[in-house]
Hints:
Layout: E1 4-7, H1 10-18, H2 31-34, E2 39-46, E3 52-62, E4 69-73, H3 86-99, E5 102-107, E6 112-117, H4 118-126, E7 140-141, H5 143-155, E8 158-159, E9 174-179, H6 185-191, H7 194-206, E10 209-213, H8 218-232, H9 239-252, E11 257-264, E12 267-277, E13 280-288, H10 297-311, E14 316-321, H11 333-340, E15 345-349, E16 353-356, H12 359-371
Parallel strand pairs: 4-5, 13-14
Antiparallel strand pairs: 1-2, 2-3, 3-4, 5-16, 6-7, 6-15, 8-16, 9-14, 9-15, 10-11, 11-12, 12-13
Helix pairs in contact: 7-10
Amino acid sequence: MSLTLRTISREQHLAYIRSLPSASHMQVPAWADVKTEWGSENLGWFDGNGELVGVGLVLYRQLPKVKRYLAYLPEGPVINWYAPNLEEWLRPMLAHLKAKGAFSVKMGPPVVIRRWDAPAIKAGIQNPDVKRLRDVEATHIEPRAFEVADRLRRMGWQQGEDGGAGFGDVQPRYVFQVPLEGRTLDEVHKGFNQLWRRNIKKAEKAGVEVVQGGYDDLPTWQELYEVTAERDRFRPRPLVYFQRMWKALNAEDPNRMRLYLAKHEGEAVAAATMLIVGGHVWYSYGASANHKREVRPSNAMQWRMLQDAYALGASVYDLRGISDSLDDSDHLFGLIQFKVGTGGQAVEYLGEWDFPLNKLLHKALDIYMSRR
């Protein structure tokens, strides 16, 4: 199959995404409007018949004082990653990006390599000799993913550093997902561990009400989010970021981004944002107050969001990043502990990969990033 690559319009890009069962929310055209500090371009791959067969949203970050760029395709491009001629997909992309002034290319193949179900993770947590998820035998392994990794290495791509739990602009390698396809809601609920089911009931009894919010509720979200950032020791994004995100994503599709608020006695005590692309639904950002935790608003909110994802016909509810640490002294351990209660799966992706087009500038960027 002979492939050609060229810049396409946002409309072509969006139409192609809509023709798929799903794609990452970071590969929809509107994501470029969220990331205003980056330049952007929509790329399209065409087969010999002129048919659009793949797309990619490229974000460009300019180096200070020189017209050279880091080209980044977060959780993309959206191509056939298992194609035996993978090189024929990626070579024209590298040539195109180099011509655009890119000194380095970073991408995140949306390729799953391993899955661990909840019982396997729990066994790992209980084993004092196990400190990392990768030390636990996977429930499912995707052999084709190893072939993709081999092909990338042979082409000169380098595997990037682990993205931790995905705070900041580097995407997580490990995420937690609840599969919904082929299951009833009752089966999903029964998959929760005892503590989760008890907490959902507790929230219900206490009168916790989960409502869908709108743009005007974003300041309420921000207050809770900043409380969470202080508690969990991360740097929060400003309110303007979420306002921009809401406007940009919902202008593209009125149901792309949602906001949920868990209220107790009229006060919002937990909140979360949800993103939807086709059959994939993400719990994107979460926040909660330091008080009223005993009424379990976060569990109630997750259950409502899962039910809504199910009603939308989603095949997967994605709780996003986790660390691969199973060590209870690690400050990120709480993430996996909370999410494993849903009875879902830990999922390992291939991670992010770099291609240095200019080795000197790429090395300089590496040094700069490591000092941040």
